């Protein structure tokens, strides 16, 4: 079973390296090329999500003695996946800003600091939502006890 997990790890490493490379190229491209690359990265991110699900299922099948090590590796991969998704989101925002600026002209956009502030607030909101959900789960578990 751990050999399947290790094969998934290799696939994960390959896919994330490709995605990282493509995310870095998105802001530098234009037109159809950029649109195709965004769609391609979106598809690859979905593949990584499916791969993470497979890894999670594999970890559940591993004997309890060895499971902790694999769970911690999986947790770090999930963190890496979240970072990739945030980077992709940022590159897509830069992509949509470029398109808007092409259509409206350079002076029609909002400032970079406002965009950064909006991204920070969005991340805070997502973290708060996760904390609320975790608190709710704890409350439900406490009621069951």
UniProtKB/TrEMBL annotation:
Keywords: Coiled coil, Membrane, Protein transport, Transmembrane, Transmembrane helix, Transport. It comes from the Eukaryota. It is found in: Endomembrane system. The keyword Transmembrane applies. Residues 34-94 form a coiled coil. This is Vesicle transport through interaction with t-SNAREs 1A. Residues 1-91 form the Vesicle transport v-SNARE N-terminal domain. Transmembrane segments: none annotated. Residues 114-124 have a biased composition (Basic and acidic residues). One of its GO terms (cellular component) is ER to Golgi transport vesicle membrane. It is a single-pass type IV membrane protein. Pfam families: V-SNARE. InterPro entries: SNARE, v-SNARE_N_sf, Vesicle_trsprt_v-SNARE_N.
